[in-house]
Structures are given as C-alpha cells and as structure tokens.
Design brief:
With 810 residues, this protein is of the alpha+beta class. The protein has 20 helices and 29 strands.
C-alpha cells in the first residue's frame, strides 16, 4: 500500500517532464515526423508492389502444382481400372470357378508378379470368403485368405506360385465379404465401385480398392474381384514435391481424412490405444495443411465449385501470415470424391523483400533519431528551471525525502512549484498514516496466523505477505516467488490438487478454496487452508489472483485428538457391553465346548470297543471340529468388539452384521424370556461401514430392548429386528420391543450424553451409537411402538451403498 502512495510524486514528476517535452515537441518532432512518414510511405509502396508480384507468381505455382497432383491421382486411378479389367478378363478367360481358391490364388500370384506396381489383388465369393495376393514393402509376395474360403478369420500365409499356401505368418480379425459395403454394392448393381480410403485389416496400410463383378460362363454372378491400391507410392511422390520453402500439396477425402501429403505429413497416426488411425486433415500437426482444411470447411463453396480446373483462393493464418492456395476436385465411380489442395505462404517469396524494407526503415529511423536527439539537446538548454523540481520529484518517488527547492518566478513554472510543495507535505502525512495501518495489519495477521498472497496471471509470479513467509517457515523478503518454488514447499501428494484448483480459478471456473500440506525448511509438516479468487478490472479482464492462507495445523491436531477420544470412548462402551453380557457369553462359549467334550468321550468309547467303529469315530470327530469352529467364531466376535483398532469402512452385508449381533445376545434373550422375530430383507445393497462399530450399535440397541422388557411383568416380551430399503433408497434397520415404551416429553434428551433411564446406567450408550451412525452420514432416531414399547431406527444413506438389487422389507 505504501509503495502505491509513491506513485503520486511519480505522477507529479511525469507532469513536469510532460511540460518540458511539450516544448521540445513543438520544435523538433514535426520535422522528424515528416521525414519518418515519407520513408514509411516509400517503403510501403515498395512492399505493396512486391506483394502484387508475389501474388501472381504464387497463383501460377499452386495452380500448376495442383494440376500435377491431379494428374498423378488420375494416373493411379486409371491404372487400378486397367488392372481390374485385366484381372476380370483373365479369370473369365481361364474359366476359374470361385469355389476353387487354389486356382484363384495361382492367377492372382501371376498378376502380382507381372505388375510391379500392383500391391494387392483379391477375390471374394457369396460364401463370405476372401483370398488375396499382395506384395509387402520388402517385395515378398504373400497370400491372405479366410478360413476354408468362407466367412472366418483373415490369415496371412507364405505364397507359392502354384497357389498353395505356405506357413501361417499371422492372423487378423473375423471377416465376411457379405457384410462389406463394396461387395454388396457390386453384387446388387453388377457394376464397378471405388471405396473410401481405409487401413487394411491384416497389413495395416492405407489404400483404396476398386471392386468389379465376375460372371461365370452362364452369365451368372460368381463373385467380386478387388484391386487394392496402396497410397505408399502416391505419398512418396508427393513427399518429393517442393512448393517454396514451406508450401504443401495434399489430398483429402469426403470424410475430411488425409489421403496423402507433401512435406512428410503422414495420413496415418498412432492412437492412444496403440492402434493405427486415419488422420483428420483439420487436426494435422502441419499448420499449412490444418489451416487450409479448416478454411475450406468454413467456406465449402470454394471446394464445391463446378468450374473446371483448379480454383485459386487465399486466407490469413496467425502463424504463417498470408497463404495462397488452389483447390481442385477429383471424382471416380463409387464414393471417391477427393479434394486436391496446394498452398504456399506468401512469406516464402516476400521474406527477402521484407528484410530489405526493414533495413530501409531502420536506416530512416536512425537518421530521424539523430535529428531528434540534436533538437532535444538544443531545446533542453532553455528548460533548466524545471530540472530542480524534476529531481526532487524523482527522489520522493524513490522514498528519499528532500526539501523542494524554491523557485521565485511568477510564470506557470512558479505556480507549479508552489503546488508541488503543498502536495508533497500532504503526501508525507498520508504515508505516515499508511505505515501505521500496515503495521497493525501485520500484527493482526501474525496473531491469527493468516497471511495473504497475490499471483500475476501473466508472469505466474507470487507475492507473499510477511505472515505467509512465516507460515512456510521462511524469512520475509521483498522478491516474489515462482510457481515452481511454491510447489517445492507443497507435499508431493497435494501438488496435483493445488495445480488443478489454481488452473480452475485462472479459467474463471470456480473460487479457490483448498486445504493442503506444506513442508518448512526444517522438515516440519504444516497444514494450511487457502482461499482466493480472481480480481478483475473495469473491463472484466483478469488482473490478478488474490487470496488468504491460514495455518490450521493446531486445529487439525485438536480435531484428531477429539476423534481419538471419541474412538476410545466407543471402545470403552463396547468393553462395558461385553461385561454386561459376560454370563451370556460364557454360556454361548460353554455350549460348543461341552458338546466337543461329549463327542470326544463318545469317540474314545467307539475306539475302545473290541471292534472299533471308525465311522462313528469319524462322525464324532466331525462334530468336535464343528463345535470347536463355533466356539472360535464366538470368541472371534468378542475379540473384534474388544480389540482396539482404528475405524475402517468395508463393503458390508448389514444382514450378516445383524445376525452376528443376534448370536452374541442370544443367551441374554433366553435368560430374560424374550422371543426374537427377524424380518431381514434379501438382496440388500452392500453398505460402506465399519463392521465393529455397526455391531456395537446393534448390540447396544438389542441389550437396551432386552433390559427394557425385563421390567415388564405382564404381556409378551417380543423383540423384532427389521432391515430393508425405504422409499428414499436409504438402507434402514429397526429394533422394536414391547417394553414400557418412551416418554414423549423426554425424546429430545434420549440421545444426550449422561442421560439414562436405568438406575445403574451411565447414559453414554445411545449418545455413542448416534455419533457412530452420524459419522457414517446416517441417522439414529426413536419413536413409541404401538400398542407399547419403543422403535429405534438407524438409516444409512443410499448413495454410500454399492449398487445392487434393492428389496424393500415388509
């Protein structure tokens, strides 16, 4: 804030300088401006003339280049048409049936061998089969064929001249000619058909295919012959083209994908999954190809013109400047509707012209600058009275206070000096007040452990307050820090979320509000909470990112201590529950142990017999194992309740937790004459909960219900446990009893700590149970049962349950 105040003398200094410079401009600048403008006009005329000449030359060049590409493409298509005619005629002349794949392969092998420019020839039949002969990049001829020449897996084999298949080289995908558009089109129309460019299913090469029908000697449709033209030769030819230094020629199909291009641009790219994909010309890395395609997409009437020959156009590119281009259309029977484009940046020809023009402008500017300096020196001699005021303003701007020199003049300079003296006095008083305010603000930040920060969105440098430095364990300094320095102080696990939050604020998506961990230089880990937002100017443009930061380490430690105390209290409650259930637990454990002893004695008797009955001994041992397992399960449940472990949420079947709680309290129910009814819904979704804590709540509610009904002398003692999903898709469990019920006036106090209706109770069970359920984002409530008793209902939110079938309990 104080530094901003020093801008005022800077403004005064600028005013003084402006008065001097105004006089200088009156004398020197007009003459300099005339010379400079004249040089600019002559240079501009030169550049305009060169631009017109380059435009004419560029148009001629790109038209010729577009025509050459068209002739090359037309030659490739004509060759494919000629080759298709020869293949169909040879098959018909030799009367080769389409159910004889060996004869077909022998014929295709001969055609590929005779024509070095042919890469792939194929035949398909109405059984869905396909067989190919083709030349690989290294000159090797191979066969491709589907299984049994019917619809099946496409496989590649070594090729023999007599049509026999050699060793299997590799397998590809399932293939059925009857599902291919080119086959059905030729079969239905009985005419030739060119396909769109595609990448082969076995040899992953980009090409196009001409399909032609083949008829048997009776004139009936027998199958389809297919000439596949690979674009490798076309791409090699176009790569050899040179159109200026940065010009490009390329071909695009009707889908917008690149067919071939000069300049090394590949029409095939590797996708994220590692597979080869065709490249959209509008997404090419080459800026000439990309921007020319996008311009034609915005102006479709250019490429769609019905005029014969290439059509010339031009457009502006942010990276290359003015670009001249020509476009032509190429069509063939089928779906071939290709666009041929040649484009060259004007800068390829105008570069030397511009360099010469810039050199001329530089010389003119140097001459004008020398003239201006000489004029300013002459005029400056007449403006010395303002020098003293200017120097005083400069010193104050730097924070160096000095007395303003007295200027005894009655002109405008004298009036300016009086006003300057008055303003500097008031400014000094204002600065003293600002210093006191800043000191108070710093003290408040230090006491509250709250600092502030400011980030420049252009330079990405960050300014910290003194308290912010102290929070990070650093010594305050005047210099700003970089984002990289900031990230070094942040815990590595928190850096991604910090980067994401800052990026969202800079995009204007949301306000900055984040907690993260930082390391001090001595290795101490601190937890901070930071908030911030973008500050904008009058035009709503982002000016800076400003926010606060607070050290919340002590608060977090206090919260963790509170959570630990709550966990210890919950464990104490579980231990007390076990103490209350000691007799029942002893009874539950004693039953399987007694049964095991009885079975062991029986087994000994069977072994001691004159003829030991091993079947009976085996059965007795099996019952001992069963009873021992049962005793171990009971002890395991008791240990899990008494064990001191941190809370852990798992995928939990709530019905299983209810059954385990029932098993631990079964003896208590029998001792108190309580009859249990359980209505547990099937196929409930799995809950995300801590098993031990949930069992603790269930045992608390069951024991409370048993003890409540223990004081009822008349009427049935019935305990009902219900589970299911309510209309809000929340998971619920109800514990219903037929005890004395609840006092409606005391329902609000029922879950308060140390409130109890038992003579020897502590009043902590229900309070702890509610805190456990609320920690699971659920609810625990109570209401009177009808005609008597109480209903305790716990609910877990459906959004925390894993998806699955939901059945509402009756």
């Amino acid at each position: 804030m104080i530094s901003d105040a020093y801008e005022i003398p800077g403004v005064i200094h600028d005013g003084l300088v402006s008065r001097r410079s105004r006089l200088r401009r009156r004398l020197t600048f007009p003459a300099a401006a005339i010379v400079l403008v004249l040089s600019f006009v002559l240079t501009g005329l030169w550049i305009w003339t060169a631009d017109v000449i380059v435009s004419i030359m560029s148009n001629q060049l790109i038209q010729q280049m577009t025509g050459a590409v068209r002739r090359e493409v037309d030659g490739m298509i004509t060759f494919g048409d000629r080759m298709s005619t020869r293949m169909v005629n040879d098959i018909a002349r030799h009367n080769i049936p389409f159910n004889d794949p060996v004869a077909l392969r022998r014929e295709l092998y001969g055609l590929v061998s005779d024509e070095p420019n042919v890469r792939w020839l194929a035949c398909g039949n109405d059984a869905g089969g396909m067989t190919d002969a083709g030349r690989l990049a290294d000159g090797t001829i191979v066969f491709l064929m589907t299984d049994d020449f019917r619809a099946g897996v496409y496989r590649e084999y070594e090729a023999y001249p007599d049509g026999r298949l050699g060793d299997l080289r590799k397998s590809a995908v399932y293939f059925d000619t009857r599902e291919q558009p080119w086959y059905t089109r030729v079969r239905d129309t009985r005419s030739r058909y060119w396909t769109e460019p595609y990448i082969g299913s076995v040899e992953r090469l980009l090409g196009v295919a001409l399909s032609a029908p083949v008829f048997n000697k009776d004139g009936n449709f027998a199958g389809v012959c297919n000439v596949k033209l690979i674009f490798t030769a076309l791409s090699d030819w176009m790569s050899s083209l040179r159109i200026g230094d940065n010009g490009r020629a390329f071909v695009v199909d009707t889908t917008g994908h690149l067919v071939a291009a000069s300049g090394g641009a590949s029409p095939v790219v590797i996708g994220a999954d590692g597979k080869q994909l065709r490249l959209l010309a509008s997404e090419a890395a080459d800026s000439i190809i990309r921007e020319a395609t996008r311009y034609l997409d915005r102006e479709p009437e250019i490429a769609g013109s019905s005029s014969t020959g290439p059509r010339v156009f031009s457009f502006d590119d942010p990276e290359r400047g003015r670009i001249y281009a020509a476009v032509d259309r190429f069509e063939a029977p089928g779906v071939i509707r290709w666009t041929i484009v040649s484009a060259v940046p004007a800068s390829d020809f105008l570069g030397p012209v511009y360099r010469a023009a810039y050199f001329s402008v530089a010389i003119s500017t140097a001459i004008v600058a020398a003239f201006v300096v000489l004029g300013l020196w002459v005029v400056g001699r007449t403006l010395r009275p303002l020098t003293a005021l200017t120097q005083a303003a400069q010193a104050i701007e730097k924070g160096e206070w000095r007395d303003v020199p007295e200027v005894r003049r009655n002109d405008e300079v004298g009036l300016l000096a009086q006003a300057f003296t008055l303003m500097t006095g008031r400014l000094r008083e204002t600065l003293d007040g600002l210093r006191r305010s800043e000191a108070k603000l710093e003290e408040a930040q230090r006491v509250a452990h709250v600092g502030y920060w400011e980030r420049d969105p252009d330079t990405h440098r960050i300014t910290w307050s003194d308290e912010t430095y102290r929070i990070f364990g650093l010594t305050p300094r005047e210099a700003t820090i970089t984002v990289a320095e900031m990230l070094e102080r942040i815990h590595p696990e928190d850096r991604p979320i910090w980067n994401q939050a800052a990026a969202e604020v800079l995009r204007g998506a949301s306000r900055y509000d984040l907690e993260y961990r930082v390391f001090r230089p001595d290795g101490e880990l601190r937890i901070v909470h930071s908030q911030g937002d973008l500050r904008r100017d009058a035009s709503s443009a982002s000016r800076s990112m400003f926010g606060t930061i607070q050290d919340i380490t002590d608060r977090r430690r206090a919260e963790e201590a509170l959570q630990q105390a709550q966990a210890d209290l919950a464990r104490l409650n579980r231990v007390m529950l076990l103490e209350e259930m000691a007799t029942s637990i002893a009874h539950e454990v004693n039953q399987p142990i007694s049964a095991a002893i009885t079975n062991a004695n029986a087994g000994l008797r069977w072994l001691a017999a004159r003829v030991p009955d091993l079947d009976e001994v085996r059965q007795a041992l099996g019952r001992i194992v069963r009873d021992g397992t049962r005793a171990g399960e009971i002890i395991g449940r008791i240990r899990s309740l008494a064990k001191k472990t941190p809370p852990r949420r798992d995928r939990l079947d709530i019905n299983e937790a209810i059954r385990e709680a029932i098993a631990l309290t079964q003896a208590e129910m029998q001792n108190n004459g309580v009859r249990l009814q359980s209505r547990l819904a099937e196929c409930l979704p799995l809950a995300s909960a801590d098993r031990v804590q949930l069992q603790q709540v269930m045992i608390n509610l069951i024991i409370n219900a048993i003890e409540a009904m223990g004081g009822v002398s008349g009427g049935p003692r019935e305990l009902t446990i219900v589970s299911g999903v309510d209309n809000a898709n929340d998971l619920f469990v109800e514990v219903q009893d037929t005890g004395p019920g609840l006092d409606p006036e005391k329902l609000d106090r029922l879950f308060q700590s140390f409130y109890t209706t038992k003579p020897d109770g502590m009043g902590m069970g229900l309070a702890i149970s509610r805190s456990i359920i609320e920690a699971h984002n659920g609810r625990l409530s109570a209401e009177p049962n009808k005609p008597r008793g109480a209903i305790f209902r716990l609910t877990l939110p459906g959004k925390d349950c894993l998806a699955g079938p939901r059945v509402v309990a009756p």
